[in-house]
Design a protein that fits this description.
The chain is 79% helix and 0% strand. By secondary structure, it is an all-alpha fold. It is globular and about 60 Å long. It starts with a helix and ends with a helix. The model has no long low-confidence stretch (mean pLDDT 85).
């Protein structure tokens, strides 16, 4: 299968998972949900362990994957915290800002120059973000105050920084460390569970979870787990074939599907404005990624 088809499948599955995650977060605490979902994901990842070439695994590769998994766990938890407290049509489009942050950080700390296309892309990202947070009854400075004062938006910004680093480590693990997608998926899910157990124990001092939650929502959790494993595996397979930038450009489609589709399902407001903002954000991200 070609990389574009794999990336497109990943986008659709990711959008479906995001909508179901938002539905589940009406019931679950963000950490509780993330922990339970990681267990379901590990369950559905068990077949990968049978295809792992254990003789080819190296300590350095597993160490890098563990570090990457720590960042991935924190990023996912932050996204769930934001998604629980914000509308899906307002929260998910902000995840498109990653390429802009990468370009800005490279300019500030690495001395890299910004091309005209990158500048245009960042202008679109800023414009899309402004439109997304703009409200008619509020002042023109309202979008800036939202980012300054909203804890949920701070979670998103932190997640963006972490996802930037994990995307680069994905490529390094598959190319430089020669880790196969099977090994990657199997051990990443195992590390996710172990890390979430550690966080859950540190925060709650126990692993006690209300059993009634499983009886009500187990099938939704199972579906999210299947979709999550599916979109992560197809993304890894596509990254193995094509440049990360190209894969992420296609993957951005998931944001539009989840934001607008989820917005309609949950009857959120101002969907036309949010759809326009999301399209502008995706266009800005693609300009920067294609540079």
């Amino acid at each position: 299968m070609d990389w574009f088809t794999l990336a497109l499948i990943s986008a659709v599955l990711s959008a479906a998972a995001s909508i179901l995650e938002k539905k589940s977060l009406f019931t679950y605490d963000a950490l509780e949900f993330s922990f339970i979902l990681s267990a379901f994901n590990l369950l559905f990842s068990l077949p990968f362990f049978f295809y792992v070439d254990y003789s080819a695994l190296t300590t350095s590769a597993l160490l890098v994957l563990f570090v990457k998994s720590v960042m991935g766990v924190l990023a996912f938890w932050c996204v769930m915290l934001a998604l629980k407290n914000l509308e899906i049509s307002g929260a998910l489009p902000l995840m498109v800002l990653t390429p802009g942050l990468v370009a800005i950080l490279a300019f500030l700390f690495l001395g890299e120059s910004l091309s005209p296309l990158e500048i245009a892309g960042m202008f679109l990202l800023l414009s899309g973000t402004y439109i997304l947070e703009m409200k008619v009854e509020e002042s023109i400075l309202h979008p800036f105050r939202v980012f300054m004062n909203s804890k949920s938006h701070h979670y998103i910004l932190f997640a963006l920084l972490l996802f930037t680093a994990t995307s680069l480590l994905d490529k390094a693990l598959l190319s430089r460390f020669k880790m196969t997608p099977y090994s990657f998926m199997a051990f990443q899910q195992l590390f996710f569970v172990l890390i979430f157990i550690a966080i859950f124990l540190f925060k709650n001092r126990s692993l006690r979870i209300n059993p009634s939650l499983f009886s009500v929502n187990w099938y939704i959790l199972a579906l999210i787990g299947i979709f999550t494993i599916g979109y992560r595996y197809t993304q890894i397979e596509s990254v193995k074939i094509a440049p990360v930038a190209l894969v992420l450009s296609v993957k951005r489609i998931s944001v539009f599907i989840a934001a607008i589709g989820g917005g309609r399902i949950f009857r959120e407001q101002s969907l036309l404005k949010k759809a326009i903002a999301t399209i502008i954000l995706i266009a800005g991200a693609v300009l920067i990624l294609d540079e």
